[in-house]
Amino acid sequence: MSEVPPTVRRPGPRFSRTGRLLLVAVLAVLVIVAVLVVPRLLRGIGPEQQLTVPEGQRAGQVYAAADKALHLPSGSTEKAARSARLPLPAEAKGNPEGYLFPATYPVASDATPASLLSYMVKTANQRLAADRITSYRTVVIASIVQAEADRPADMGKVARVITNRIARHMPLQMDSTINYALGRSTLHTSHDDTKTNSPYNTYKYEGLPPTPIDNPGAEALKAAGAPPEGDWLYFVTVKPGDTRFTADYQEHLRNVQEFNDRQKGTGGGA
Predict the structure, then answer these.
(1) What is the DSSP letter of 155?
(2) What residues are paired with 242 via a beta bridge?
(3) How far apart are CA 185 and CA 166, in angstroms?
(4) Less crowded by CB within 10 Å, the N or C end of the chain?
């Protein structure tokens, strides 16, 4: 009768006290990562999620981008904007247009439409304070400058044209304000467009529109706050990089004709 051989037990790995402490520390880090990162990933929002607001975007465009960044149904941020208590000047009457400062914003896992909008408005207020801009009127002018100027180098002159025309009680006649009223962006303004019944129609109504028409960047704000001296009353961008400023109406008409001829020659392109 043979004997059953004894069970062979192989020694398992042995850890020193230092090794056991290191293992516990590694496991603790893994738990923390799981707690902080996994909920973000489950929501579809990565740890580096950001929202970029380009210069000149309108509030409606910012709202749509925020909905997408927050993975919310369309219209969520716009609805929040109507009820959120944002740090806006009294003249804004709760409308954040002009105060959603162009920048890149981090989107935290617990961000809400209201918190994101508040972050943008606070950033705008900080920028305005740094430039010593306290007037809502200046932000309105800056928004038109942002929309009308072909390049940053022209922004100061555009701001001066606006202030000169207001001082002379001349209608601004800015196509960008009509575009805002009609919810579009185009280089072409028809005669019928200039009859649009809207307070943003600066062909029909003298003075500034009631609110900003977009969210201006730092350069447009600076230009509106301190435009250079000049007697310019008219301007037209004949081609990219070539904006003509003048105080002479007949000269302006010649510049406009050159612009129109170029538009016809390029099939309506800039």
Answers:
(1) H
(2) 239
(3) 24
(4) N
pLDDT tens digit sequence for 80-90: 999 999 999 99
Stated length of the chain: 270
Tell me if 107 sits within 8 A of 51, measured CB to CB. yes
Per-residue confidence (pLDDT) for residue 18, from 0 to 100: 53
**Which residue type does 1 have?**
M
Beta bridge partner(s), residue 239: 242
Q: Are 84 and 114 in contact (CB under 8 A)?
A: yes
- What is each CA distance from 268 to 103, 191, 260, in whole angstroms? 32, 17, 9
Burial class (CB in 10 A: 0-12, 13-18, 19+), 3: exposed
Distance CA 9, CA 90 (A): 82
- Burial string for 168-178 (b: 16+ CB within 10 Å, else e) reads eeeebebbbbb
The full set of domain ranges for the chain reads 50-130, 136-265
Strand ranges, E, within the chain: 50-52, 104-106, 234-239, 242-246
Per-residue pLDDT tens digits for 160-208: 999 999 999 999 999 999 999 999 988 788 999 999 999 999 999 999 9
Q: What are the structure tokens assigned to 58, written together?
A: 């309108």
